[in-house]
Amino acid sequence: MGLMKWTEKKIHGMTLGDFAIFKIALALFGVIIGAYISAFVQQYIWYFIVVFVVLYAVLMYRVFGK
Q1: Sign of the C-alpha dihedral, residues 10, 12, 14, 16?
Q2: pLDDT average, residue stretch 15-38
Q3: How far, in Å, CA of 11 to CA of 18, rounded?
């Protein structure tokens, strides 16, 4: 199976909640990267990292675990 067909199959199996988790995880990744610009985010960087890792793990389980 080609990469594109595999990707399309996985995307069609995702729910609206999965897409929400994906978008939140990417937004948190951006916040973590932006932490070096903002002092506020630097205070809470570990909270952002923990939430990002948990959401990303859930997403990877949903994509590869099925």
Answers
A1: positive
A2: 84
A3: 10
Stated pTM of the model: 0.54
Residue 2 or 38, more confident: 2
**How far from 7 is each of 2, 18, 20, 21, 34, CA to CA, in Å?**
9, 14, 18, 17, 29
- Domain residue spans of the chain: 3-64
Q: Are 61 and 8 in contact (CB under 8 A)?
A: no
C-alpha of 11 from chain center: 14
- DSSP states of 9-42: HHHHT--HHHHHHHHHHHHHHHHHHGGGT-HHHH
Question: What DSSP designation does 37 have?
Answer: T
